[in-house]
UniProtKB/TrEMBL annotation:
Pfam families listed in its UniProt record: Cupin_7
Highest taxon above the source species: Bacteria
CDD domains assigned: cupin_ChrR (cd20301)
Matches recorded under InterPro entries: Anti-sigma_ChrR, Anti_sigma_zinc_sf, ChrR-like_cupin_dom, RmlC-like_jellyroll, RmlC_Cupin_sf
ChrR-like cupin domain span: 113-207
Record's protein name: Transcriptional regulator
């Protein structure tokens, strides 16, 4: 992430509008919210888009005809009040400028420091630390460190997968991704990311359902990678 700022470069790969709307509405899971927050921290363009979404959302709420109170149950009313509270936004929605440290501020509540995190070796050149245990729906968030020249198994997706590059870079069938960039993959996409730079690629991967590995290596790694 800090690499993006040092060079004055802005991300080229952005999340879809649907994801920004979901984020603005606070309806994404924690893993996806964290991925979006990491991207937003280095993307003025998406921060501006999010501000527009917030403005439109507020206008829509004001334009709704007032519901007669007697038609609402107490639970409905409480739910409405809850929904109107600004602090109901995901806690990760704070744009923390990247600091001196190599550990992005947004990740510190999850891992402390990257250097001291309990990295597990998944395969030659691939290490992982899990940030969020998988939810009942199968979502997850984890960090991967991929050595230069190393390819992840070719895989498809049972749901949405967001990858945010924090440092280094990777290339897959859809493009090249550097610090700050988001790769969004869904049921339609099968891809094989390769760390293509001279430095290790550090990225966060958030999913909302288990991935399906397709190649032989992928099937062998599936139980270990737990993506
Ligand atoms: Zn963006």
């Amino acid at each position: 992430m800090t690499g993006a700022c040092k060079t004055g470069h802005h991300p080229k790969h952005h999340p879809s509008d649907a994801l920004l709307v979901g984020y603005g509405a606070g309806s994404l899971g924690e893993g996806l919210s964290l991925a979006l927050a990491l991207h937003l921290a280095s993307c003025p363009e998406c921060r501006a888009a999010l501000a527009d979404i917030d403005a439109v959302g507020g206008a829509l709420l004001e334009a709704l005809p007032p519901e007669p109170l007697e038609r609402l149950t107490l639970a409905d009313t409480l739910a409405c009040l809850d929904a109107a509270r600004p602090e109901r936004r995901p806690p990760s929605r704070h744009f923390v400028p990247p600091g001196e440290s190599r550990t992005p501020s947004l990740l510190r509540p999850y891992v402390g420091s990257l250097a001291a995190a309990p990295w597990q070796r998944l395969a030659p050149g691939v290490r992982r630390v899990e940030l969020l245990p998988r939810t009942p729906r199968g979502g997850s968030a984890q960090l991967l460190r991929i050595a230069p020249g190393t390819a992840l198994p070719h895989h498809g997706h049972g749901g949405l997968e967001l990858t945010v590059v924090l440092s280094g870079s990777f290339t897959d069938e859809l493009g090249r991704y550097v610090a700050g960039d988001v790769a969004e993959a869904d049921d339609e996409v099968r891809h094989q990311p390769i760390a293509d730079g001279h430095e290790e690629c550090l990225c966060l991967i958030a999913t909302d359902a288990p991935l399906r590995f397709t190649g032989l290596m992928g099937r062998l790694m599936q139980p270990f990678i737990g993506l």
